[in-house]
Amino acid sequence: MTDPTLTEGLEDLFEGYQRFRSEIWPERRKLFETLAREGQRPRALVIACSDSRVDPGMVFNAAPGEMFIVRNVANLVPPYKPDGDYHGTSAALEFAVCVLEVPRVIVLGHAMCGGVQALLRGFPPGARDFVEPWMTGIAAEARRRTLACSPAQPGGAEAQCELETVKLSLQNLMTFPWVASRVEAGTLRLYGGSFDIRTGVLSRLVDGQFMPVS
Fold it and tell me: Which residues contact 82 (CB under 8 A, 6 or more apart)?
């Protein structure tokens, strides 16, 4: 007999899985079989925030196999630094670019980012071991740029800093030699975007400005 405590609090998730098996899997079975047989060839690498309110697959209405997705706090790309430390985002970037040879990389920021809020207002006690050094170590320049803006851009300092993290991550991508060489050769393109969870509007970075996608 199954111990009911093993699924306590997860009933909705398991019900969702059952709907997936009964409704979605039959329609997508051939697609998954093809992906299993032929491997993945994603159209883009998406570097997004771990925020549970922002699902890149939903935002882009993408099918399985279309996007290679990396999620971390505040959608940050660290600078190129190959050493003995653990580099989850850099490892995923290397695999997507050098092994899967994706033709596009998208940095997707979003409104109301908790990591950015902490960067500007201070970190809560429970986010000091890893979140604080992650944000201050990578995004300090985004914070500096934001605070240097006078007056603040529409939406306030947090909204401005959320956009600055996207720009900074795009700059850091170019510190990876195998990214820069592919961009220069025209085989890889970099894009920046921001999703507003309050309105559902996606904006794209064009010539230094974020413009709503029409």
Answer: 90
